[in-house]
Amino acid sequence: MSETSQPTAPRPEPRSVLVTGANRGIGRAIAERFLAQGDRVATLARSGGAPDGVLTVTGDVTDTAAVDAAFAEVEAQHGPVEVLVANAGVTRDGLLMRMTDEDFEQVVDVNLTGVFRCVRRASKGMIRLRRGRIVMIGSTVGLYGNAGQVNYTATKAGLVGMARSITRELGGRGITANVVAPGFIETAMTAELPQDRQDAYLGTIPAGRFGAVDEIAAAVEFLASPAAGYISGAVLPVDGGLGMGH
User: Fold this and answer.
1) Where does the chain show beta strands of DSSP type E?
2) Full domain range(s) for residue 119
3) Residue 222 is part of a domain; what is its CATH number?
4) pLDDT tier at 1 (50, 70, 90 boundaries)?
5) Which residues are known to be catalytic?
6) Is there a domain that residue 244 lies in?
7) How far apart are CA 219 and CA 217, in angstroms?
8) Rounded distance, CA 57 to CA 122, Å?
9) Residues 33-68: tens digit of each pLDDT
10) Handedness of CA 219, 38, 85, 83 (dihedral sign)
């Protein structure tokens, strides 16, 4: 070894990672990212289709018993969950005056209470290990609002309070909790939008383009890494500058 060369840092041991909703879109990209770095990756999803190599446990985050059973299966095969990425989410968009109680409650049950159920269960193992990474997938619109999405934006704003409360409660045990807030991302959903609608959205983004799912996955990977051990209770926007100042 020359005098100027630096020793290579040892590669971290493979971790037990659980990504909810890894069967498509952002969740799939996140799971693939952790797989590529050698982690043991599982997903809790309502349907199949997760990447090869991901342990798929079928279940619903709105069902506490299903969440507990899923974690038990993951723990049996991969060990205690060290990284939880709470990604599963739904939308039921509609203007305030027309939004039904059911539309509001369903979104809250999946996007906010569902995250709570998963975090609560994951925290048990993390507390015993005295380490853990919790990353919640929020949204830029959760910080500045969006017409027709009172239910969705409320849940994404709620994740910020949840992450910060978890940080104050568990931060001394080596556990971090953060929110990644995507903006407009290239997915099957955005591809189906009429061109004039896509152009209107693009006009609001300083970067002048939609984001890629891999860019969200990279942010999650960083927050779950040893390099981010002193970052907790933070919101990391990945939105091309869309939500600046919010």
Assistant:
1) 16-20, 40-45, 55-58, 83-86, 132-137, 175-182, 235-238
2) 16-236
3) 3.40.50.720
4) very low
5) 152
6) no
7) 5
8) 15
9) 999 999 999 999 988 888 999 999 999 999 999 999
10) negative
* Domains: count for the chain: 1
CB 31 within 8 A of CB 50: yes
Short-list 209, 215, 189, 214, CA closest to 93: 189
Distance separating alpha carbons of residues 17 and 20, to the nearest angstrom:
10
Name residue 169's beta-bridge partners.
none
**What is each CA distance from 238 to 19, 86, 190, 212, 215, in whole angstroms?**
19, 16, 16, 10, 7
pLDDT attached to residue 6: 52
How far is Cα 198 from Cα 45, in angstroms, rounded to an integer? 29
Summarised one tens digit per residue, pLDDT across range 74-133 is 999 999 999 999 999 999 999 999 999 999 999 999 999 999 999 999 999 999 999 999
Distance separating alpha carbons of residues 139 and 183, to the nearest angstrom: 6
Q: Is residue 8 part of a domain?
A: no
Q: What distance in Å separates the CA atoms of residue 220 and residue 136, rounded to the nearest whole number?
A: 9
Taking residue 1's Cβ as centre, other Cβ atoms within 10 Å add up to 6
